[in-house]
Each structure stands twice: as structure tokens, then as C-alpha cells.
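Progress narrative, Year 2. Work on Tip attachment protein J domain-containing protein from Acinetobacter equi advanced from sequence curation to structure prediction during this period.
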Amino acid sequence: MKKVIIIRDQFAKDKIEAYVDDVCKYLAEQFDVFPENAQIYHNQISEQTNITPKTEADIERLKQLDGVFWVVIHPAWWMVVFWVVTAVMAAYSVYMIATMPKQNGQGSVGSSNNELANRSNKARVKSRIPDIFGTVLSFPDLIAEIYTYYENGIEIEECLMVIGRGYYDVHECKDGDTAIEGIEGASISVYDPNVSITSNTTIYRTGTAFTTAPRAVRKSDAINGQSLVQPNDLSLESSSLYFMTGGVIRSTANIDFTTYFKVGDGIAITGAAFGINDASLSGTAVLTPDFKVIVQSSVDIEAYDAYKGLLLNGALFEYIVEETTIDPETEESTTVVVERATRDASGQYEVSSVTRIQSGSIYTYTIQLSNPKQVNYSWNDISENQTISAGITLNLNANSMTLDDIYSISAISSTQITLANAATVNAEWLKLPTMFNGSTQGRQANVDLEIVANKWVGWFNLDFDQATQAVFNVYAPQGMYATTDSGGEREAGCTITVQYQMLDENKNPVGEIVTREWEIWNKTKSSFGRTARYDLPSKGSFRFRLAKTYAKQNNRPVTEVKIKSVYATYASSKRNYPDVTVLRLKTVATDGALSVKERKLNCLVTRKLKTDGTGALVATRDAGQALINMALDQYVGRRSSSELDIAQIKSEIQKVKNYFGSDVATEFNYTFDDDNLSFEEMAGMVASACFCETYRYGNKLRMKFEGPQDNSVLLFNHRNKVPGSEKRTFSIGIDKDYDGVELEYTSPDDDLKTTYSIPEDGSARNPLKITTSGIRNHAVAKTRAWREWNKLLYQNLSCEFDALDESNLLVRNDRILVADNTELKTRDGQVEYVDGLTLKLSQFIEDPYSKQFGNVEIMEGKTYYIYLQMQNATIDMISCVAGNEPDEVILSRAPLQSLVIDEDRYIKTTYLLVEAQEADKQAFLLTEASPNDEMTNKLTCINYDSRYYEKDKAFI
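Result:
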């Protein structure tokens, strides 16, 4: 048998006991509907033994248990869950914890809105849609694949982005620091939720309107900028080959050249290097702003000063841009990193000189480059010495000769090949007569001779089941032109062959291979691109490959072509995006640039919220409106209006405004981007940004402003404390030896993170560091920082004790009165009887022999006060004198409310008796409340001091 004990009123002594076989069946007989505030405990009453079922599985587990089952029906107010109060918080302030940005969960990517630097537009797959409140500099998220193509040789990029959930006022849009309106060719349109993105109904627009839906695209990951070249088929490899003046190739071996080549063949020579070899200095080097590469090595390089070329591979360095701002009020300068990126200085450079210094066995080589910015733009970002770890090769020694290049055969025999215009193709042939007496015979080199042939890039699969079109983007990084004999320029060109074939459901090729010829001709030294679009034979995935099948050969043409990107696309029918504000952006590359730079579109926006959660949409930064709308949001708070005390929240916000004399103290400006952040945490962040706390009263969410408090809300003495639980700690000096405060917040000037320090000269060496969320105002940040510092400065007493169940009515930062029950004698208790202005107390307050109120000596000319706990959660302080009996006092006036003295009441009016000069010494500020069991809470307090708030009016 199982024992069930039902307590219908936890404050009454009545209870029902029964022995049953089936607990669930018995409870169904006792209650028509199981009470909302009832809890079931197993064997004993504690939070750890709470087995109240919430799911069917919980019910089945309840049926399997044996022992004693306690069913306690708590009053509604007991169900208050102090989800802010019960958090473990440092005594100085809840703000440091509640306003800290939370770390995103594993796999979740945070919004650039909250990043310190390098903010950009990015795709945040499977991450939370930005939930913006107040005014924020938004870096919209990409919600579709970026689609790029070329028009008139210039790259065009189209993006579809989301600003965030809900509606917004868009004040301005910029690309980096430049207004969109000032960027040639740029277009942007911003749309309210559920408005067609092809309509003219926009909330912000610059440039041309978007009249067609963006194409759905899938980009090939296999394309990484491969070059389309005329590659070579290896025909002959031999170390017996040697070269003679006039473009002649011979062999010391018995080789018949006519079996490999014929007149008119294109021939590629590789490995034909003679003389001083390239020197490798791979390792660590220093790049200097004056175009030097400094390398230390133990290698003694032969003819080091004759090298005219330098090859760097993997020359990566970190590029950092810092910005210093000066606060106009404090003249304090703040330096922040606004950009951090990796640059690559790799390339083949021209060397003007090489010098070296020897120290012991170490040689320091200083390599002076000539016009390196023309080879690699990254040299523009080297404003100070940069250390790299890279492949470093000195080449093109003046005492060496390299004949590698592509030539045409003008004559051939079994023993000799004659190249057409060899010295014109490669001027290194002119070194043969002087350096090697006209022949390299006897100088061994492993040389390859290759016939020029077509080479494909691909096949590559591109999976996109809905694809109806293939899009190919190529670009010519050096332009495309040919140089005439007179030094002029003329048009050059090439033919690119594209092939594609459909794939079946198993990704196997099916159907015919479609071949397209794509001719590109131009006369320009500037980079440009081209786009080709081909309709697919059917809908679905496909494979593709590309090759350069022809290129102009004479007049020294420049026809290098690289593959930029390949897309599978189809015409999307999606026009509307409910519940989110989206934007479309079209940008173009700058004239002569290779492509569109990194996307840094940012919009200064203010969230529109429904007034009181149900009214008209209004752009607002009000923290109270943010809390109300969050709570009513079906995806965030999931509360109903009956669970919000809207009037109280608005009243408390107005109280903050009235206290500071400004609306800025009640602003909340932040982007919630973490899908693991609970509503309780979010609510705490909103409230703390405006100097408030959130709490529940009954089942309603409320807000409480922390400010100076003249009166205490509850009195605790030995009557409502657990005996022996009180501990008091006196401190000398400041907690953890903090010597200042550093508070991080968002600057309204540039919407970057900035720091306010106390002392303002930044001299603190061990400051308390606080990171806030939602503060975007210098004055508010300074006020917050000074509150934190003053609490460190003036806190000298902490008190901890276990309080009875009336402590459930408290909220963090409530001012309370606490009798010192660590002393042997007491001067507190409860009122037993009232006779006019005479109170009979539970304790003797006068010793007939010592004439003392407990341990307070009665002296003429001094004033004494008795603190009385009122029924409405307030305390009445009244001056008094000793009565006619040792346990009586006479009040100077009547209490504000009737005192509770009836014998049938669970709690009577409690009191605390103190001398006038000690009145304030018993006031404490509640910093933490955590439940111990059903009837008690552990309270942690610090001494109340009005100086905590002495700087509140100094800045706002």
C-alpha cells in the first residue's frame, strides 16, 4: 500500500491521509481537476523530491513508485519563480551578469550586429533570425546564394538579405562608410514583411527598382579561379637535349625529332634552365613598407647580387586597421580595431638589388623590390614591418638563362629543331652567345618538350534538382589585347568551349553532351569578365567542363582567362517573406577592379513595435515596450496579456524617466541572435539596461526600478528568521582589490563597442570589467559604471540568513530592515497587544536594573524608534518611549495601519527597536534570494547606502 497525504492549505494544520494502491486513481477521485498550484512530493517535501508529472511518461513513473506521497496545494503567490533573483550573482550588482551578451550555442553563428570588428554580411545557416529592439546598426544576413554575373565587362552582384523579424524604420544604408546613394550603379530596396519583393511598395529605396524575382541559384564549389590555358601533351623528356644560338634544339643521344614533331607544331619547353640556379630561402622573412624583403639564412648564396627576380609563395600576414576616437566630454581617446583581415603578398617580383650582411655563420639578405604594388595590391596594406613564413626563392639570376616558353617549329630534321623567332618569344636566347659561347652542350638539364593541345577543366557535377539553366562566368585578369610590331595595341581573343550533360537521380551522366562555343574578343589592359547562359535540355542536376580551344597567337597576345564561377539556376516564384523585413541589393565592381569587394552593407534601423503589444506599430527604443512585445511574442515569451502587468511595467518605466528626467535611461538597443537564449535571460537583459529588475507578482510579469529607497519593504527579526542561520561579514577595503571599473557599451557615434573607465584616465590596474547589452548612450553608460563603482566603494557589511515564507514577496534590490540577531540580546519580536498608543511586546525592552532597551541604553534627550511591519508590505517607523511595564512602549503617534495581533493569525506584526542614530544602520539591500525548502529562503544582503546612487544625476 502507498500512503498519500493531502495538504489543502500549507499554512493550516489540517491534512488528509490515506493508504491506496493506485495514487493516480485516488487523486482523480479527490479532485475533479488537478489544482494548478498543487505539487506532488515523494517521501519528503523538497525541490529535489518534486515528482509532479508534466508528461505521460511522468505519470507512468509515478505509478511505479512506492512510499509516501505528499500533495501540497500552494497559494497562487507561492508559485512566484524568482528567475532573476535566484540566479547566483555577485553582491555588487545584477547588471554585470544580466546585461552580458550570452555566448551562442554550438553550431550557431552570431549576428554581425553584435561583433566587435570585421562586421560583414554573411549567411547564418540554422541560426536565429536577428531579433532587433531599439536602434541598431544592422548588418543584414544573407538568406539566399549570392548571384554574380557580368554586364559590359563589369561584375554585378545581387543579394537577398534579411534585417530581422518584424517591422522597421530604415534611417540610412551604407556600404562600409559610404552611403549607398553615393555608390554608382548600386540599387537597394527594403520591404516590409509579406510585401512582394518585385513591387514598388518599399520602405527604403535607392537606385533602380527590382521588377523581377531573384533567381534561385546553386554555386559550384569546384570552381576556385582555375585558368583556361592551351596546355600541352608531353612528347619528349630527355637530359641529352641542348640549345644553340638561333633557336636550335639538338640532342647528344640518338633521337629522331621527326617522329615526335612536325613543322608548324606549337611546342612548349620546360626545364631549360642553365647557369646559376634559383636560390631557396624559404622560412621567416620581414616585409617592410619601403618594399624590402629581409631574410636571415645560413646559406651562402653564390652570386646573390645578380638575382633579378623573387618568388614568394604563401606570404600571408595579418592586416589590422585601428581607429581612435575622442570623447568630446571627457577628451578621453579610445582606440578600437575596426578591421582585421589576412592579406597574401605572394607573387613573382622584379628585384632591383640584393645586399647582405654576415654575422658569424648567419647571412642577412636585404632584397629590394621594384614596383611590387603592380604585382600584388597587398603591398598597399604594409604600413609597418610584417613578419611572414613563406616560400622564398631568388630567381632570374643575371648569370643564368631560362629558355622555358611556348614556341612554334619553323624547321625540323631528325637531328635538329629550329624554332620560329625564338629570341622574340623569349629574350633569354640572346644570352647564349655571351654566356655559353652559343651552345649549352655539356651543361646537363632535364628538359621536357610538349606539343600544345586542348585541356579541359572538369568534369564537375553540380547538383540542383530544379535547375533549368547553367550560368558560366569567366574573367580576364590582365585584360585582352595584342601588341603590334610598332608597339601599338590591337584586338585579341580566344574561344572557350563549354560542355554539359544531365545527371540522373544516381548522379550518373545521361543523354547527349551539349557543346557550346563561346568567343571572347577585346582590346583592353583592364580586367573584365563575361557571362554565358545556356538553357539545359531538361530540369535537374548536370555536369560540366570548360576549355580554351583557340587563342590568338601572333603579335604577343594577352589572352589569359580564368573561371570565376558556375551556377545552376531557375526562375524562383517566391515573392513574399512573412514576419521578416527583407532587402534586395545590387552592386557593381569599381572600374578596373577584379570583382565586388567584401560585403559590408549596414543599415541604421529602429524596430517598430505594437504599442502595449496590441496597438499600432510605432518605431521605439522604449525598454518597457520591448519587454511587453517580447513576452507576447509567440516564438519568444509565449505569454498572454493576462500574464503581463502592462500598466505596472509602463508605470515603472515612467518612474525611471521621472527620476532621471530623460527618456534615454529607458532605452534598449540590441540584437538577440542566440537561439539558446531563454526568455527569462532576455527579459533580464532588457530590464537591467534601464536600471530595473523583472519579477512575477502572482502570475503576472512586472518590472521594478532600482533607485534610492527611503523606506524598507519588510522587517526581519528573530520571529521570521531561522534561528542560528544569520551570518554577518564586515569588510575592510574593496572586494577583490578592484581599483576601478571598465564598462563596455555601444557608442551611438559609430555603433562600435567602446569603453568607459573609472578612473577616467584609465589608470586602474585591476578594474571590474563589465560588458553590457542594450546600452547605446554615453550618459547612461557612465551612470551605470558609477553605480557599480559606488557599490564597490561603499559596501562594507554583508548579511546572510534563512528567512521564513514571507520573504517570497521580495524582489532583488529591495531595501529591507534586518535585526542583528547575532548578538546575545535582542531588541525585536512581535506585538502581542495594543492599548491605544501603548504596545505590549513579546520581549522585555527594559531591564529594571540596567534601564536598557535590550542592549540599547535609555538616555534622556535621545530619540528611539520602533519599526512596525505593515500588512501592505511596508514598514512604519514611529518614535517611542518606554512604557509602564518592562515589555511596553508608548508610541508618539498611531500606526498607519491596524496592527495584526489576533491569536488565530499565522503571523503577527513584527517590530524592531533602535536608537535614532542607528536607524539607517539596519537597512540592507537584497542581492540574492534562493529557496531552501517549502517554507524558507536564503537571503543575501549588503548594507544599504544612498551613496550608491550619488552620481545618478551627474550625466543624464
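Residues 133 and 669 are 5 Å apart (CA to CA). Residues 76-106, 591-596, 848-856 have pLDDT under 50 and may be disordered.
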